Amino acid sequence: MLQASDPLDITSLGRRYAAGSLRPAQTVAGILERIARRGDDKVWIHLLPRAELEARAAVLDSRGMDGLPLYGIPFAIKDNIDRAGHPTTAACAEYAYVAKASAAVVEALVQAGAILVGKTNLDQFATGLVGVRSPYGVPGNSFDPSYVPGGSSSGSAVAVAAGLASFSLGTDTAGSGRVPAAFNNLVGLKPTRGLISTRGVVPACRSLDCVSIFALTAADAAVVLRSARGFDAADPFSRRAAPAAHAMPRSFAGCRFGVPRAEQLQFFGNQETPRLFDLFTRKLKELGGEEVRIDFAPFLETARLLYEGPWVAERYVAIRDFIESHPKALHPVTGGIISGAVRHSAIDTFAAYYRLKALRRQTAPVWDTIDILVTPTAGTIYRIAEVEADPLRLNSNLGYYTNYMNLLDLSAIAVPAGFQADGLPFGATFAAPAFADEELCVLGDIAQRAMVKTMGATGLPLPPHSEKEAVQNANSISVAVCGAHMSGLPLNHQLTERGARLARTCRTAPDYRLFALTDFKPPRPGMVRAASGAPIEVEVWDVPAAAFGGFVDGIPAPLGIGTVKLEDGAQVKGFLCEAYAAQGARDITSLGSWRQFIKGGTT
Q1: 441 CB contacts (<8 Å, ≥6 apart)?
Q2: Annotated catalytic sites, by residue?
Q3: Which of 20, 70, 300, 552 is 20–30 Å from 429 (CA)?
């Protein structure tokens, strides 16, 4: 059974599922009991029916864990993200509709074995960093309900911090996936723009929007990201994964971390957060990092463009028909912000765009001197009553360190960084150029474990970090396997006994052909790069670097390890076959996978 005090982090649940001491049906029952015990906490706008959750758990119980990296993991989504057959409100009842299809990211997570529990509260139309602009009420901060939970992804953060979900999805245009993480002792991953599809998400600023991930640990955020990401041809803003522009460290040893000049740091009158941020940067130096002071002015100027410039007009475009036909349906503060967009002209838009390009060029050299940028996630936190009395100025203060990220095409992770004397959490953010997401998760994991001992508001300790896992996270090699090394097949033990971990199940780019090499014992496939190919199902395993050489040494000819391109554009090491061996072998490309071939009993 899942007891009230049991941890929900992905590592802990995965270990219990593997040991047979917990089943998805028991997890569902435990989660529903926890939600019922909290009563009307304003976290949820829509919960999936118990019968639907139980049916989903039953499917997983009978299916088993093989090939499902998120097997039985309960999660929540912000209610501006679609789930087929369920309402989406964006925290505006008059806007609500029943989604005909699930958002691409939700479908990917379900395919990876996760269990969607429900849809969470938010600042209406994802406009705000405070979490109080919703007609569905305010989800109280998980440490002190008199304080703001952070927004706009308020319910998503509180659901995870309170132990109602293992992870959740938010959205992040201006900081909505990071500020709530800081205020609830969570990790908030803001991936590179376009890395996770936004198809099926109600837009805020469509050219800037990101789907974000709230998790109890940075390691969990990385696990979710591997299943959530992927190029989506149906999303015009989707991007193929690519290597980061700069080599990224995977530890703080020698890591150059940039910090704004002292006079550019703002804490808005908070007497404790300056000390906490100083302790955080000192800890990074103790871990081997080198602090570099940078000029933060161009980052701040970029931030001001988001709400003071014409990008706010994107918010108007996103709901133009609705706002013009239902002008009184919006929350007063939300309506005021979005309606103000009409004052911007096309001339303003081009002027701001040109200025942004100049600021991007101005900030680019910073990354020649630093590996990551380190700032507070928010300089302070406010009581709900304070925000209601001064909604715009205080909200703006919370975006001081967040609003520039997507305009400058950065990846970022918010991590727990300590507690004030009153018990309220404090958070810091690591930022880097696009596509540094995995490395930021590794650094975030190190920093989180150095600064705090508990997960969210649960009071439960961070899961043990074994030496094997530490080596794997800091120095691992991703390997795509397409045959007998896959989960549940005869040679999978050669991966698991070396401490390898399944990262995700996906497909290659459509550049390969698959052949059945039936003379081998056991039979196995040969994947060959070809001018005319098709996507092939693979599993990507993270192999500890120390064990990689021994693994490769055991691979017999004509197979070998080369570079394999995946469907999302990422490149990993993987099994490839010499072309001569495919001559005369049966071409099974049309089946799409080795599993489909062996299901036919032809081996």
Answers
A1: 189, 218, 219, 221, 222, 225, 413
A2: 78, 152, 176
A3: 70
